[in-house]
Amino acid sequence: MNNENIIRNIINNDEDFIWHVTGSIADVQYNPVYWILTVLTLGIFLIALKLKRIYRSYILTNQRLIIITGILSKTVDEIELFRIVNSSTTQSMIDVMANLGTISIDSTDMTGSICMYKIPNPHMVRDALRKQYTIARQKKGTVVLESLSGQA
């Protein structure tokens, strides 16, 4: 079963689909180490890298962030948006050239922290995520309390 079928089956009728992203291999063209590994493995490295990145999908609805991982077997995890407390984007020099980035998400549920690696247009994706989790918190009446431990 491909990820599109899984997405259709798990999104509820009362949910609005916002976006679906996967990792990209656009950084390969800027990284000479990847070129060398690709040549040394006769292309197997590049194929494995592509499979690793595209078979980890992130789906954002107006209620949750859904993470689907796996090629032959699938794992589906989700984070309710109102439970997300922080998100950030980081980019290496190569990521900046390829317009990719890592989006880190901290939540209060059992999933804890996750990272979305090598995401195209990371600032735009993170801003859309931030907008949705802010709206979800407002709808639920959730307030994030900052920790004051260690301060006098």
Can you walk through the features of this model?
- The structure is a single chain.
- The protein has one domain: PH-domain like, CATH 2.30.29.30.
- The chain is built from 5 helices and 7 strands; from the N terminus they run αβααββββαββα.
- It has a 4-stranded antiparallel beta sheet with strand order 1-2-3-4. A 3-stranded antiparallel beta sheet has the order 5-6-7.
CA gyration radius, whole angstroms: 17 Å
Pattern of helices and strands: HEHHEEEEHEEH
**Beginning-to-end CA distance, first to last residue:** 55 Å
Strand content: 25-35%
CATH fold name: PH-domain like
Q: Per CATH, which architecture?
A: Roll
CATH class: Mainly Beta
Arithmetic mean pLDDT: 89
Q: How does the helix and strand content classify structurally?
A: alpha+beta
Low-confidence stretches: none
CATH homologous superfamily name? Pleckstrin-homology domain (PH domain)/Phosphotyrosine-binding domain (PTB)
